[in-house]
Amino acid sequence: MGRYYGYAYKNRKTLKVVEEEAEKVRSLYRYYLEGDTMDIAAQKAGLFLCRESVSRILHRDYYIGKDRFPAIMEPELFYPVQEKLKETEDVFFYIRNCKNRPAPEILRFRIEPGDYEGDDIYQRAEHAYSQIREEL
């Protein structure tokens, strides 16, 4: 049988809430909804898990009491987090899938090859922007 964070098996078929873990899950949702990244929200909540595990916790609908799972949180906390996750996923989907599309007009320009080789990424970016010769 698999392990569901926030729950433990009372017997082989019944799940019960592990209140200490459940409070960490609720805190994770609250911190994420307040604007923290997944990683920072997890650390603040006391969850020291990999990002994929944190993401799974944020996506699971059984925390509001689905199927055989007792509810750990109210839907009023769960659904706004789902909306925020959807917005974030839409942005990343757009970035991943736009590599072969032409850039929007506002982002098209001609740049001269740069020769700046410094280690500071901000100075390198500033130098690259200074090499823009014309907007298209």
Q: Helical region count?
A: 5
Order of helices and strands: EEHHHHEHE
Oligomeric state of the chains in view? single chain
* Beta fraction: 5-15%
Q: What's the Cα radius of gyration?
A: 22 Å
Major sheet strand order: 1-2
- How would a textbook summarize the main sheet? 2 strands, antiparallel
Distance separating the two termini: 59 Å
- Total beta-strand segments: 4
Short characterization:
This protein has 136 residues and is mostly helical. The protein has helices spanning 19-33, 38-45, 51-59, 75-97, 121-130, and strands at residues 7-9, 15-17, 109-111, 132-135.
Layout of secondary structure:
Elements: E1 7-9, E2 15-17, H1 19-33, H2 38-45, H3 51-59, H4 75-97, E3 109-111, H5 121-130, E4 132-135
Antiparallel strand pairs: 1-2, 3-4
Give an overview in words.
With 136 residues, the protein is mainly α. The protein has helices at 19-33, 38-45, 51-59, 75-97, 121-130, and strands at 7-9, 15-17, 109-111, 132-135. The strands form two sheets. A two-stranded antiparallel ribbon has the order 1-2. The chain has a two-stranded antiparallel ribbon with strand order 3-4. A hairpin with a 5-residue loop joins strand 1 and strand 2 (15-17). The model has no long low-confidence stretch (mean pLDDT 80).
